[in-house]
């Protein structure tokens, strides 16, 4: 039986489990992560096993400091500028592996790069106390809705892990933005909690977007992901019989009153509020029993890019791939 422990008293038991090569579900500012020692092959294998995650899909190595990141990866000047501006925070930087890096090859899916992030809050404190990077994908079964509360983790993975650290609802609510610097330009591999506009304001240049379906270079790049059991219908102007409705803003789709259930990401149209509510509201609508969740249009600007990315992957055909 999984134990759910408040973050205020969870540090020592969490470190003990990690030292033993076990897993811990920990809160971060983005979503809850399923953490294991990134330098321990058996611990990393347990992450893949617990999630049912394909092993060609790399994991993010979470660090407590830039110094810890430098032990496993090599920084170019632009990547360092991004780290210094946005860490700790919801941005992951894909970097060349440093020679002699102790991150296990299973965590990098055998690539010559490693995705690195410095989280905020309890997660960073835990990594600092543990003293080694933690591999930590979202704490859910592979391909399903990412958890933003300890209860959601316990409900999904409670029979597969021993400890969930309860740090309250995740304030950002969507995973980190993943970027890679190539030829002096920043490319976004996955939109997330730091918007493209924020990055562009820092570097004084436009960012590139990932185009098409190519090589898996980082987590969250597979076509089908973040999916409820119900199918998802995007940009809905009306609600069909038997559907639930994921709404946005003050104006409703036609027939909204007949929806099996309704959740509004943000009544006032605030994208930060919408991002924080996205996964929990998808989960609540999924539990309402509808075969389909109709989703009202969400603007693309700012955090809307990350929200729409998650919704498109949630709506993708389930037989394409799964992360």
Automatic annotation (TrEMBL):
Residues the entry annotates as binding ATP: 53, 57, 113, 138, 146, 190, 226
GO BP annotation list: regulation of translational fidelity; tRNA processing
Keyword field contains Cell membrane: no
Keyword Nucleotidyltransferase: yes
Endpoints of the signal sequence: none
Subcellular compartments: Cytoplasm
Keywords noted in UniProt: ATP-binding, Cytoplasm, Nucleotide-binding, Nucleotidyltransferase, Transferase, tRNA processing
Reaction catalysed by this enzyme: L-threonine + hydrogencarbonate + ATP = L-threonylcarbamoyladenylate + diphosphate + H2O
Domain YrdC-like: 8-194
PANTHER family on file: SUA5 (PTHR17490), THREONYLCARBAMOYL-AMP SYNTHASE (PTHR17490:SF16)
Similarity remark: Belongs to the SUA5 family.
Function: Required for the formation of a threonylcarbamoyl group on adenosine at position 37 (t(6)A37) in tRNAs that read codons beginning with adenine.
Name used for this protein in its record: Threonylcarbamoyl-AMP synthase
Organism: Pseudaminobacter soli
Taxonomic lineage of the native organism: Bacteria, Pseudomonadati, Pseudomonadota, Alphaproteobacteria, Hyphomicrobiales
